[in-house]
Amino acid sequence: MTTLTDYLNHVSCDAALSEVITTVTDVGKTIAQLLRKGALADILGEAGNQNVQGEDQKKLDVLANDLLLDALAQNSHCAGVASEELDHATPANVDGSLLVLFDPLDGSSNIDINMAVGTIFSILPYNRQGQASKDQDFLQPGTKQLAAGYLLYGTSTMLALTITDTVVMFSLDPDTGDYIVVEEQVQIDADTSEYSINSSNYRYWRAPMQQYIDELIAGEAGVRERDFNTRWVAAMVGDVHRILCRGGLFTYPFDTKYANKAGKLRLMYEANPMSLLIERAGGSATDAVNRILDIEPTDIHQRVPVVLGSKNEVNYVRELHLQHANKQG
Ligand code: F6P
Ligand code: MN
Questions:
Q1: In a shared domain, residues 174 and 199
Q2: Residue 285: which domain range?
């Protein structure tokens, strides 16, 4: 039985990085406990305010955010924290060498219905030690991530983590409180017949995405000559987890529903960490044309279209978008 601590030692993970990962995953245990109690812990329902994105916050969004923020502020290696729920990054310890970004509670609409939710995190280097960190310091492309992962609070609590060139999956043992390695090298098949999209937004998509989904729905009667299956957890953590387990394609594409926003998902807290996991597991992640990890961020809260998962399927979506762009001239 390899615990998370054993694993971090085994891969000779840098001490600062190990400590920050341990802080985040320890908070994950607290969030998992609260979720297990559910209504009995008074964690369900609305917080009564909106976040910087104009979304109604749930009690657990606020609680998970505060737990992570407080724990990381006390970690001497953490120079600053950026959260989906906060307007600006929060400086932490000026001598810290790491920046931590997180979506404290992904899939908030699932909280009140006892369905899967998660915490997504990304760790970047801090380059101005000795000075207080600012939003600007977090604007690094996804390729710079030193580690990324998520906690999935499902029927069991699981951790997916990448710090080397592989993705490792852990299960939280509720009896001992240890994260135990259950999959040492997660690999995604290049082909798939399963896809995830919120189809109710069909009329807001661009033509190549509409064409792609039309082809999948046509199944064996259409140009793809085989049937496809849909799954939608409504928590990115859940859909990405399924893809790491058995392949698939997940997309929250560009749509015109969210005025002046490229899509729904956030580059820094969702797309980048998930893209690193997916690529390290052999899959691909793009905004439909460009590799997500290469995007130079301009705003800590920026949104980005996301297409990720099994390589051949992601490439096919990309080809359709490129063909469409070429036709437009
Ligand atoms: O964080 C945004 C998010 O909750 C993702 O986790 C999820 O994939 C998506 O939004 C669900 O969106 P919708 O409400 O459109 O189904
Ligand atoms: Mn989210």
A1: no
A2: 194-328
